[in-house]
Amino acid sequence: MSAMTPETLLPDTCAWIDFFRGSQTPLAEALERGLVQGEVAICGVILYELIQGIKNPMEELLFLNASQAVKHLEMSAELWIKAGRLCADLRREGHTLPFSDIVIAILALEHELSVLTIDTHFDMIPGLKVAKG
Asked: How far is Cα of residue 80 from the mean position of the Cα atoms in its chain?
């Protein structure tokens, strides 16, 4: 994949699930467009969530092959610290988000990506771009 652009998506697990199930949802369609345009990234926590939910070896092979075509984002020590601070800030405001979503949000913020999701709690994160499909 070429350098990431501001239109690059970091699809949440729900978007990948819709896509691989063949659902004709706005999320699945947006993910398909992003894949065709080479504007999709993925991270370890999404890989983890998807792999643990796959029910058969053929689905796993299909997913692993597809995941090779996208940019893989990694967490650095600096990003782990930012993630911890974001989580603490949100908790002070009365919001508790899943660990995986904090990681996804930090990577999206760091790389200036849009999170493709239906989960509304991403909207609570200051400066995060969210695409609903």
From this structure: 16
> What's the token pair of residue 106?
């930090």
Higher pLDDT, 6 or 19: 19
Does residue 79 register a pLDDT over 50?
A: yes
Q: Which of 101, 84, 108 is nearest to 6 (CA)?
A: 108
Q: Which of 114, 97, 102, 95 is nearest to 75 (CA)?
A: 102
Lowest mean pLDDT among 18-22, 45-49, 79-83, 98-102: 18-22
- Delineate the domains of the chain, giving CATH numbers in brackets: 9-131 (3.40.50.1010)
Q: Please say whether the dihedral angle defined by the alpha carbons of residues 50, 128, 9 and 117, taken in this order, is positive or negative.
A: positive
Rounded alpha-carbon distances, angstroms, from residue 45 to 37, 72, 94:
23, 11, 24
Q: Closest Cα to residue 118, out of 45, 20, 41, 13?
A: 13
